[in-house]
Write a structure and sequence with these properties.
single chain, alpha/beta, Lambda Exonuclease, Chain A, 6-stranded mixed beta sheet, 10 helices, 18% strand, binds iron/sulfur cluster
């Protein structure tokens, strides 16, 4: 079974939501607003990939003022990222997999740069920089991306960092950097093994007709979940509105990777 950071986030948030989305095939309907954001995000990712490959981008930006604006702002704010250095390895949409028991953990880095004794994972976000970096630090994207790199390369955890670029931040694009360490690596390994062990147990029970666990009754998680009626949970509009505003950006980050062909 292939697992991405988005699936691990969902599994951790609510196992039943994971079941409905990935095992029952009920899908993950997104709102119009989310679809629009995803589409803008995909276009920006494609643009960055084209540029990295040295392909023309004029046709992509010509009729899209928003994309053009993001691109110009990013080029101004992160010149050093966009300028290749002699001797470095860099690749956009860099994919790695790591097998842990019966799972294939899959990560796709928007851009991977290895320079001498350090390397960087870069990720583009087309939403504003979050106020609270702790949520992103705990998000499986940050955890899994660095973990898989340390496990599948010669780089020591201390030589790895992950940088998120938020192209839609107020004045100009802003970044958040997360460094990595051996201690973090050990902690993530423990957390990952424990989550995968739980998943294996739930999958075994699912095969004999048992459902994955739900979050506790009254949990705020249900307030922004599309399966409230299927789960017979109460939906509180006021709370839902608050929760949606707080979580929509991070929830977007849990949606499956955009794979650019
Ligand atoms: S409604 Fe609540 S319990 Fe049901 S899948 Fe959604 S978050 Fe989980």
């Amino acid at each position: 079974m292939r697992l991405s950071q988005g699936q691990l986030n969902l599994l951790e948030r609510c196992p039943r939501q994971f079941q409905h989305t990935y095992l029952d095939g009920f899908g993950s309907p997104t709102s119009l607003e989310q679809q629009e954001r995803l589409s803008s995000g995909s276009r920006f990712h494609l643009l960055m990939q084209q540029q990295e490959l040295g392909l023309p981008i004029d046709a992509l930006v010509k009729e899209d003022a928003q994309l053009q604006g993001w691109m110009n702002a990013f080029a101004g704010a992160a010149t050093e990222i966009l300028t290749p250095v002699d001797g470095e390895f860099r690749e956009s949409e860099h994919c790695r997999t790591l097998q842990v028991e019966e799972y294939l953990l899959t990560v796709i880095y928007d851009l991977f740069i290895a320079r001498g004794d350090s390397c960087q994972i870069l990720d583009w976000k087309t939403y504003p920089k979050p106020q609270d970096r702790r949520k992103l630090a705990q998000n499986w994207q940050t955890l899994l991306y660095q973990y898989v790199l340390a496990e599948t390369s010669e780089y020591l955890p201390e030589q790895i960092s992950m940088i998120y670029w938020f192209v839609q931040s107020e004045d100009k694009p802003q970044s958040l950097t997360f460094t990595y360490s051996n201690a973090q690596h050990q902690q993530i390994e423990k957390k990952l093994n424990s989550l995968l062990l739980q998943l294996s147990n739930w999958l075994q029970r699912y095969e004999i007709g048992e459902q994955f666990p739900q979050v506790v009754e009254g949990s705020k998680t249900c307030n922004y979940c599309q399966f409230v009626s299927r789960c017979d949970r109460n939906w509180e509009p006021d709370l839902a509105e608050q929760e949606y505003s707080t979580n929509k950006l991070l929830n977007l980050a849990t949606i499956q990777e955009v794979i650019i062909q």
